[in-house]
Amino acid sequence: MWMKNLYREWIGRFIFRKLNIGIGAALLIVFLLLGLVIYNNFYSILEKKEHELLTFRTEKLKIQLVDIMERFNYDSMSIYQSSNMQTSVYELFLPDNIPSNMEDRRAVTEQNHLKNVMTHMLSRNPYTSAVMMYRLQDERLFVESQQQKYRVNPSYPYKQFFESFPKSYRHPYFGSADHLLAPADSMLYIVNPIYNPTSIHPDQVYGYHLVTLNTRTMTNEFDSQSSDYRLIIKQKDVLLLDSRPDEPSAWNESGDLISHLSIDKYQIEIIGISYKSNLQSKLSDIAVRVLFILGLSWLVCIIIIHLIQRFIVGRFNQMSKHFKKVQRNPFTPLMSVNGEDEISELMLRFNRMTQELQNHISQVYIAEIRKRNAEFIALKTQIHPHFLYNTLESLRMQAVISEQPSLAEKLYHLGRLYRWMLQPTDDLISVQEELAHTNYYLELLMLGKSNRIALRVISELNLENCFMLKFTLQPVIENAIQHGKLEQYDDPVITVTIKKESNLLIIEIHNNGKYISAEEHSRLQQLLEMANTFPEQHLGLKNIHERIKHYYGNEYGLSLPEQQAEAKPFRLIMIFPYKR
N- to C-terminal Cα distance for the chain? Predict the structure, then answer.
C-alpha cells in the first residue's frame, strides 16, 4: 500500500516522470540487448580466431612430429651404413664384436665412437632431449643428452624395459615413461630394434636405438605463451601424452574447442584442446568495458532526456501559472511567447483564445448593461399601463358616444400601439405585424395634418412567414420622416421593398423627400461602422444597427447603398436572416 501511495505522490501525477521512467527502461533494455549482441559477436569472432590458432598450433606440432620421425628413421638407417674409416654401428652390437672386460682400450674406443654417433644424431634432431642405445648381450646402456642434467637412472629397470618390446620389424615403437632418465621428467620415446641385416634370422634383435622427447618441451612448443591450450597424443588408442590436469580422457565429449589431426603413417593422433572457459575469461575485460561504455551512454541519454524534458516542463509550468491567472482574472495580460516550436504555437493559440474570451466577455457584459438600461427605460414607460389602456378606452367610448368615429379610430390605434410596445412578447415577430403597428404609428402621426405621408409596401413574399426583430422598422420610418422633411414635399411617399436574396431577408426603405449629400451619406456610414457601444442617439439608426448585430451576428444589420458624388434620395437597407 505504501508503495502505491508513493507511486501516486511522486510518479502517478506527473506524465513526464512516467515518460522518463519508460524511456529509461526502454533504453536500458536496448543497451542490454546491444551489449549481449556485442558480447556474442565478440565471442563468436574470438572463438573463430581461437579455433584457427588452435588448428595452426596442432598442424605445427604435427609437422614437428613428422620431422622428428623422419629424422629418427634416417638416424636408424645410418646405424647400418659403414664407411671406409669406421665400422657400422650395428656391428658393435653383434655378440662376436663385444669387447671383454680385459679389453679396456677397445671398450673406450667403442664408447667414444658411439658417443660421437649419438652426439651427431642430437645435432641433427634438435627436438630430441636424449639419445639412448642399449645392447642386449651385455646389458650395456649408452646415453647422450642435449642437457647435462639428464643422466642414467640407476634405479630404472632398463633390461625389463627393452626386453618388453616385440622382436619384429613392426617399428618404430612409441611410448611414454616418467623415470627413464634422471631427473624424473615425463618423457615420450621412440625406439627401433637393432638387428643384423646380413643374418638369415632377421628377427634376431641385438639392441635398441631410442630417442626421448621431453613432454614439457613439446607442451611449451604447442603453447609457448600461456597455458590456455591442452595437448593429447595417442597411438592406437594408447595415451602417450595428456597435458590436461585432473581431466578424464574422453576429450570428444566436452564442449570445448577441438583440433584433431592424425599421422596415418604412424597411427598417431594429435588432439589440441582450448577451453571455452578461457575464452570467457578473456572476454571478461571486454565485457566490463562494453558494459561500462553502454552504461555511461545510457546515463548520458537519461541526462539529455531529463534536460530536454525539464525545459519542456518549465514551459508547461509557465503556461500552467498563466492558466491560473486567467482563471482568477480573465483580463490578465497575454503571456510572452518565445520560439517557433509546437509549444510556442500552443501558447499563441491560447493567447488568441484568451483574447477572444476577453472580447466575448466584453460584448456579453456590454449587452447585459444595454439590456438593463433598456429594461430601465421600459420600466419608466410602463407606469401603470392598465391605467393608460383604461383611459384610452374610456376616451374612445366617449368619442363613439359623441359621434366622432375618426377620433375613436385614432384612440383605438393609439391603444393598440402602446399595448403592442409594452407587452412582454418574443423579440421576433412577423414582418406583417411590424408593418401593421408601423401603420398605426403613421396614422397617429398624421393626425390633424393635411399633407399626409403614404407608406407603400412592395413584396411578393408571404409576410406572415417572414420574421424580423421587433420594433426596428418604426424607428427607421420615423427617422426618414424627420430627416427627409417629407411634410414639406407634395405627395410624400415612403416605399418599403421586401425581397429574399439567398438566405437573407432584404428590406429596402427609401422616400421622395430631401436628398442626402455625399458628405451626409459618408457620415452615416461611418456612424454605422464605428465601434461606439453607447451612441448618443440610442433610439436612432445606430441603436437599431447594434440591436440587429448583437441579436443575429455581425453580418446582419443596416447598410447604406453606395453613393456617388452628387446628392440622391435617402435609401436604407435592413438585412435579416430569412426564416420561415
Answer: 66
Q: CA 20, 26, 27 angle in degrees (round to 5)?
A: 85
Residue 10 is given by DSSP the state I
Q: Are 255 and 274 in contact (CB under 8 A)?
A: no
* Model pLDDT, residue 134: 93
Looking at residue 519, what is its pLDDT? 80
Instruction: Compute CA distances 63 → 75, 167, 236, 262, 335, whole Å.
Output: 18, 29, 19, 11, 87
Kindly indicate the confidence band of residue 508, based on its pLDDT and cuts at 50, 70 and 90: very high
Q: Which residues pair with 234 in a beta bridge?
A: 239, 269
Report the candidate in 276, 162, 272 with the shortest Cα–Cα distance to residue 208: 162
Cα 485 to Cα 240: distance, rounded to the nearest angstrom: 141
Separation of alpha carbons 372 and 534, rounded Å: 13
Spatial distance between the Cα atoms of 491 and 181, rounded to a whole number of angstroms: 158
Read off the pLDDT of each residue in 256-275 and give the average, rounded to a whole number: 88
Judge contact between 408 and 396, C-beta under 8 A.
yes
DSSP string across 448-499: T-SSPPEEEEEE-S-GGG-EEETTSHHHHHHHHHHHHTGGGSSS-EEEEEEE
Cβ atoms < 10 Å from Cβ of 341: 11
Q: What span, in angstroms and rounded, lies between the C-alpha atoms of 411 and 481?
A: 22
CA distances to 115, 160, 334, 359, 393 from 330, in Å: 119, 117, 10, 10, 54
Q: In this predicted structure, what is the pLDDT of residue 249?
A: 57
Q: What is the dihedral of CA 322, 326, 329, 331, to 10 degrees?
A: 100
d(CA 420, CA 412): 12
pLDDT at 191: 92
Does the pLDDT at position 133 exceed 90? yes
**Between 378 and 216, the higher pLDDT residue:** 216
Cell (9 digits) for 325? 491567472
